[in-house]
């Protein structure tokens, strides 16, 4: 899910009114099919903006970028990073810069978005009738569970992982005491479209027959 523009503007106005610092982790921004204003664009004087290459281009590219509220604050952060890590990998930095400058990164992103879109289409076909939410070029889908199965989301996620399906319960994304009764299913981890489709068919079959989750905690 992506925070829509109207909600972003309302949050930005609130942060500006009370002088609240924003840390904007925009790791998946390059995949979105509906770009929205960033908080760094709405309230740049209050926002630390972070993005990187490992999520959208490949986990081996462990490089990220930070834009601070102003030059002084950014220099302070640079000092802290030097004290903690000395520096990032020069080889990774050089590779990332080369790919960005020569267009390789753009071509990779187009291919990755196309593949993610195809897998989302596969998910839509396999999970017809189940009210999941997803970005059309995203790696994941969000599947609410209320009314589908009578079992704990964390236990269901563990059961699915035993079947080779990458699933995480809503509790992993909750900062309070009332986690969403839902699952995040990863489509990007499968090595092929066929493997992705097989996993989704297994998921659909398990959801269709509650016996798969019998005896699990409620």
Tag the structure with descriptive keywords.
single chain; 218 residues
Summary, kept brief:
With 218 residues, this protein is α+β, with helices and mostly antiparallel strands.
Structure description:
The chain is of the alpha+beta class. The chain is 44% helix and 12% strand. The chain has helices at residues 5-18, 39-42, 71-85, 90-102, 104-126, 153-162, 193-208, and strands at 22-25, 47-52, 64-67, 140-144, 167-169, 182-186. It starts with a helix and ends in a 10-residue tail after the last helix.
Proportion of residues in helical segments: 40-55%
Distance between the termini: 27 Å
By DSSP (H or I, 4+ residues per run), the number of helices equals 7
Question: Which consecutive residue ranges, at least 5 long each, have pLDDT under 50?
Answer: none
* Sheet having the most strands: 3 strands, mixed
Instruction: Round the Cα radius of gyration to an integer and report it.
Output: 20 Å
- SS-based class: alpha+beta
β-strand percent reads 5-15%
Could you spell the SSE succession in H and E letters? Answer: HEHEEHHHEHEEH
**Biggest sheet: strand arrangement:** 1-2-3
Number of strands: 6
* General shape: globular
Give the mean pLDDT. Answer: 91
Question: Strands, helices and their partners?
Answer:
Blueprint: H1 5-18, E1 22-25, H2 39-42, E2 47-52, E3 64-67, H3 71-85, H4 90-102, H5 104-126, E4 140-144, H6 153-162, E5 167-169, E6 182-186, H7 193-208
Parallel strand pairs: 1-2
Antiparallel strand pairs: 2-3, 4-6, 5-6
Helix pairs in contact: 5-7
